[in-house]
């Protein structure tokens, strides 16, 4: 995929896309393969959400996660991607085999929905450079030319400006607001909530930009460069787009999570080191846990449950990555792909929605042997969790809240044991 090496390929992209400035922090890699692009960008302080299906190449996503690269099992098909609108600074496809020119441009329109105003779309591979490769692809010149023309037409309809084309690579930039878009006619999506995507069918319609007052304003709000963006007030909060969250409550949340993470590091001494690299926050809220933990030694998958307040857009505006999910279902990953799981009041949230056993079994599935779990919740709920965890052979302990034993919220810490077949036989004999 990268004949001159991934670094040289990324350097070519960086000649157009301002990757070194801090403006580009979150990216989407569609049809990522083993996520090499994401792996090389991770060391450049850019977080890439990579996804690929399990196909004839088998467990590519599992390999990516074992490399320590963020990835999920996924596909651009008929259902909207589980990410909020205006989430990513950049989207990428390198020979990803997605038929961009088909279905009335529906897949490009979905990328447009999740791409931030001013963000970049990179296409690398077919049908670009068709004059050179059409015989290798066993396709006619006319067919390839027509496919690229349709992609160009849909990009123009979406008001993406073409910034670069050379060899196998083309780069477009999404304009910063709708005022400068000169499209003659387009099917604009009618839905008011563009983040309501869980099990919603993808449509061949264009997501409208948020309104702006003048042509120089970035629709949805301008973001600071990373790392200042991590603790700056996100535009969704300053513009009062998240019900119940104010600038003051956001700042208080940050202070609280810095305090919580300091406490966690006393309880789990290796937290913040290379021991825990792939981390998941199962009820991420405003992303305070991941922000307080921020380190080049790790990354956090911030999960916003579909039944919780929709705060995932804030998470992305902070320069973090995440995904929507319903914890009554399995998560889109392979077994043993995370080193540490964290959840704040997740079990209280799901108390009347599904069985605790099902959630805990899924946690056990995705957690690596000798991986850790940190839960914050009410003492009654955590006592129920602890009884079930005993059956999973986790090593557990219940710790008092940072503010003392009189606080009803407690901290549950567990370590998944490394069990081999002989151990199971011995445990069975002991039980008998």
Automatic annotation (TrEMBL):
Its EC number is 2.1.1.-. The lineage of its organism: Eukaryota, Viridiplantae, Streptophyta, Embryophyta, Tracheophyta. Signal peptide: none annotated. It is an enzyme of class 2 (transferase). It is found in: Endomembrane system; Membrane. PANTHER family: METHYLTRANSFERASE PMT14-RELATED (PTHR10108:SF1104), SAM-DEPENDENT METHYLTRANSFERASE (PTHR10108). It is a single-pass membrane protein; Single-pass type II membrane protein. It comes from Anisodus tanguticus. Keywords: Glycoprotein, Methyltransferase, Signal-anchor, Transferase, Transmembrane. This is Methyltransferase. GO terms for cellular component: endosome; membrane; trans-Golgi network. Belongs to the methyltransferase superfamily.
């Amino acid at each position: 995929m990268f004949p001159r090496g991934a670094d040289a390929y990324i350097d070519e992209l960086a000649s157009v896309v301002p990757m070194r400035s801090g403006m580009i922090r979150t990216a989407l890699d569609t049809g990522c393969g083993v996520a090499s692009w994401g792996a090389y960008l991770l060391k450049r302080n850019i977080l890439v959400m990579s996804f690929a299906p399990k196909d004839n190449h088998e467990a590519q996503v599992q390999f990516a996660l074992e490399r320590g690269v963020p990835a999920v099992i996924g596909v651009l098909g008929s259902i909207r991607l589980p990410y909020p609108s205006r989430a990513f600074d950049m989207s990428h496809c390198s020979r990803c085999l997605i038929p961009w020119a088909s279905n009335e441009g529906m897949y490009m329109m979905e990328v447009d929905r999740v791409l931030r105003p001013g963000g970049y779309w990179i296409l690398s591979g077919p049908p670009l450079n068709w004059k050179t490769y059409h015989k290798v692809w066993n396709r006619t010149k006319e067919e390839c030319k027509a496919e690229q023309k349709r992609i160009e037409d849909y990009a123009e309809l979406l008001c993406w400006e073409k910034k670069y084309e050379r060899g196998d690579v083309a780069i477009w930039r999404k304009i910063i607001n709708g005022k400068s878009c000169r499209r003659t006619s387009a099917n604009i999506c009618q839905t008011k909530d563009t983040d309501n995507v869980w099990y919603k069918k993808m449509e061949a319609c264009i997501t409208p930009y948020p309104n702006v007052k003048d042509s120089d304003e970035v629709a949805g709000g301008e973001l600071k460069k990373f790392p200042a963006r991590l603790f700056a007030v996100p535009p969704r909060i300053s513009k009062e787009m998240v019900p119940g969250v104010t600038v003051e409550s956001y700042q208080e949340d940050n202070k609280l999570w810095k305090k919580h993470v300091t406490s966690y590091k006393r309880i789990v001494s290796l937290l913040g080191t290379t021991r825990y690299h792939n981390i998941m926050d199962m009820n991420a809220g405003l992303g305070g846990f991941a922000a307080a933990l921020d380190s080049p030694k790790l990354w956090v998958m911030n999960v916003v449950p579909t039944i919780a307040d929709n705060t995932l857009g804030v998470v992305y505006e902070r320069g973090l990555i995440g995904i929507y999910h319903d914890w009554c279902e399995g998560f889109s990953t392979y077994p043993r792909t995370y080193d540490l799981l964290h959840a704040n009041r997740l079990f209280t949230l799901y108390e009347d929605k599904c069985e605790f056993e099902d959630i805990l079994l899924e946690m056990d599935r995705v957690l690596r042997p000798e991986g850790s779990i940190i839960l914050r919740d009410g003492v009654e709920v955590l006592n129920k969790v602890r009884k079930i965890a005993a059956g999973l052979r986790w090593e557990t302990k219940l710790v008092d809240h940072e503010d003392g034993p009189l606080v009803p919220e407690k901290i549950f810490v567990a370590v998944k044991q490394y069990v081999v077949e002989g151990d199971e036989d011995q445990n069975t004999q002991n039980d008998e």
